[in-house]
Amino acid sequence: MSRRTMALLSQWTSRVFSVDMDGETVYFKIHDTQTGKGGKEVLRMFGNIQKGASCYSLLVSSGEKIHSARFHWKLKDKLSTALPPQCRFSPMCSFLPGVRDSLVHGYFLQAPSSDSSATTERLLRQWLRLDDPLLVCSYLHEENTPRWIQHLWNTEQNHGIVPSEAPESHPATLNLINSDVFYSFQAARDVLQKCADIIPEAASVLELLPCDGDMEARSKPDFPIIVLEGLDATGKTTLTESLRDALGATLLRSPPPCLSPWRARFDQEPPILRRAFYALGNYITAQQIYSQTSKTPVIIDRFWHSTAAYAIATAVNGPVCDLPAEGSELYRWPSDLLQPSVVFLLTLDPEERKRRLKDRGQGETKEEHELDLNQVFRLRVEEAYKRISGPTCISVDASSSAEQVLRQVLLLIKAKRYL
Ligand SMILES: Nc1nc2c(ncn2[C@@H]2O[C@H](COP(=O)(O)OP(=O)(O)OP(=O)(O)O)[C@@H](O)[C@H]2O)c(=O)[nH]1
Ligand SMILES: Nc1ncnc2c1ncn2[C@@H]1O[C@H](COP(=O)(O)OP(=O)(O)O)[C@@H](O)[C@H]1O
Q1: Where does the record place a coiled coil (predicted)?
Q2: Which of 13, 153, 196, 406 could be stapled to 202 by a disulfide with Cβ–Cβ 3.0 to 4.6 Å?
Q3: 112 upstream amide cis, omega within 30 of 0
Q4: What is the distance between the alpha carbons of residues 59 and 161, in angstroms, rounded to a whole number?
C-alpha cells in the first residue's frame, strides 16, 4: 500500500465525499458507525438509485500529481469499456474541507442487477490486486432503517454515512493552484519536465521555452500591448487583423505558432498537463511581445485570460455561483508574466455567436463544443474572464458589424491614451 493511500486512510473519517448525481452534487461524510443515521439527504442521493442497485466508489490515491491525474483521466475509459453495459458511473471526489491539495478524484458506480454487481465486484477486486492506486468502497443500506454503511475494501472497515453540507467553496478550488492554473513560469515548466519521460512532445516544448533570466520584468514597453479575448467566434481574429492594419501593429497569438505541432497532443491530456502547456505558451508569447514592443504596438489574440478562465471554469463544474468569489487570489495575474496595456473582452449574444461559428465553417475545439452543449459552462467561462485581476479589461459588445466594432475599439484605445 502506497504512503499516499495510507495517508488518505488515516484521514478517512474526516473526509467529505461529493457525487455528481444527475446534474446535482450531493455531499456526504463519515459518521460513527454506531450512531450514523442515513438521513434524508443520503437517502435522496441513494434514493435516486434504482431499487436493488449496488453502489461502489473508486478514488484515485496515487500521490504524484501528474501520475494521479493521468490515471484518473484514463480510468473513465477503463470503466466505460470494462464495466457491464447496464452499469452507470458519475464523477466523485473526496476532500478535507478547507485543506489545500486534499482533493482526490474518482467515480461513483451503480450496478443495477445482481449479475452486473457480481461482475463489477470481480473487476474492482482485480484492480485492487493489481495494486492500482485506488480506494474502493461499497455502500450497503440497512433494511428498514435510514442507515447507509460505507464498506472500505482496502481496510475492510465499515462506516456510517450521513449528509454533509456543501463546503463554502467548490472542492475543485482546493487543488486549482499549479494543478489547473499556473501562477509562475517555473510551476508550469516543472510539470512538463516531470512528464517528459512519458510524453516525448514535452521535451520539444521545453526546448522552445525562454531561459529563467528572460522572465525578469522588463522596462515599461515603448508601444501599447493590446490583448483580445472572448469565446470562439466572437470576432477576435477578425478584429485583431483589422487592428493590426489600422495601427501598423504586430499581431501575435497565444499559444504561439511554434507550439502548434503539439497542441492537439496536450489537448488530449488531463488538465494539469494541458493547462501547463497553455501557460507556457503565454510565456513564449510574452518573449515575442518584448522583442516587438520597442518597434510597434502589439496585438495579441488570446493570452492569460483564456488560459485562466477556461481552466477555472472547467475545474469548477457547478453553476456560476460555485466559481471562486470575485477578488479571490485564484484570479490573480502571474507575477512573472508580462501585463498588457489593456485587454478587450469581446462579448456576444449566444445565438449570434453560434451563427458566426457556423458561418465560419471551421471545426470547433472540444471545449468549444462543450460551450455550446453546456450553457452553464459557457456562463462560467464568461464570468471567469471578467474576474481575472491584473491589467485593465474592457468588455466590448461585438454584435455590431466588424467595421463598427473596430471603430469602437480604436476610440477606446485613443480615449484611454494607449497610443
Ligand atoms: N488560445 C488559447 N486557447 C485555449 C486556452 N485554453 C483553452 N483553450 C481552448 O482553445 C480554444 C481557442 O483555440 P484558438 O486556436 O486559440 O482560437 P481559435 O480556434 O482560432 O478560436 P478563436 O481564437 O476564438 O478564433 C478555446 O476556445 C479553448 O477551447 C488558452 O490558454 N489559450
Ligand atoms: N463584427 C462581426 N460581425 C459579423 N460577423 C463577424 C464579425 N466579426 C467576425 N465575424 C465573422 O464571424 C466569424 C468568427 O469570427 P472570428 O474573427 O474568427 O472569431 P474568433 O477569432 O473570436 O473565433 C467569422 O466568419 C467572421 O467573418
Answers
A1: none
A2: 196
A3: no
A4: 17
Q: Whole-prediction pTM value? A: 0.92
Share of the chain above pLDDT 90, in %: 70
413 CA distance to ligand 2 centroid (A)?
A: 20
pLDDT digits (tens, 9 = 90+) for 325-370: 999 999 999 999 999 999 999 999 988 988 898 887 766 667 777 7
Measured in Å, residue 232 CA sits from the centre of ligand 1 at: 7
Q: Where are the alpha helices (DSSP H) in 196-335?
A: 200-207, 236-247, 260-267, 271-292, 304-315
User: Which ipTM was obtained for this model?
Assistant: 0.92
CATH of domain 176-415: 3.40.50.300
Give the residue, by CA position, lying nearest to ligand 2 atom 16.
235
- The residues spanned by each domain of the chain are 3-174, 176-415
- Asked if 330 and 176 count as a contact pair (C-beta separation under 8 A), the reply is yes
Pocket residues: Cβ below 6 A from ligand 2: 230, 232-238, 356, 359-360, 398, 401-402, 405
Contact between 50 and 113 under an 8 Å Cβ cutoff? The reply is no
Report d(CA 102, CA 94) in Å as an integer: 8
In what side-by-side order are the strands of the sheet with 298-301?
250-253, 298-301, 225-229, 342-347, 393-397
Give the best-scoring range by mean pLDDT among 28-42, 228-242, 363-377: 228-242
Nearest CA owner, ligand 2 atom 11: 356
Please state, rounded to an integer, the average pLDDT across all residues of the chain.
90
Output the CA 353–ligand 2 centroid distance in Å.
8
The closest-lying atom of ligand 1 relative to the alpha carbon of residue 233 is 24
For the CA of 302, the nearest ligand: 1
Instruction: Find out whether the beta carbon of 310 lies less than 6 Å from any atom of ligand 1.
Output: yes
Cα gap 268→263, rounded to integer Å: 9
User: Which of these, 241, 263, 348, 265, lies nearest to 307 by C-alpha position?
Assistant: 263
Nearest ligand, CA 381: 1
Give the pLDDT confidence score for residue 416 in this predicted structure: 81
Residue nearest atom 9 of ligand 2, based on CA coordinates: 235
What is the distance in A from the centroid of ligand 1 to the CA of 100? 29
Question: pLDDT at residue 134 above 90?
Answer: yes
What distance in angstroms lies between residue 362's CA and the mean position of ligand 2's atoms?
11
Say if residues 71 and 59 touch (Cβ distance below 8 Å): no
**pLDDT for the residue 174:** 94
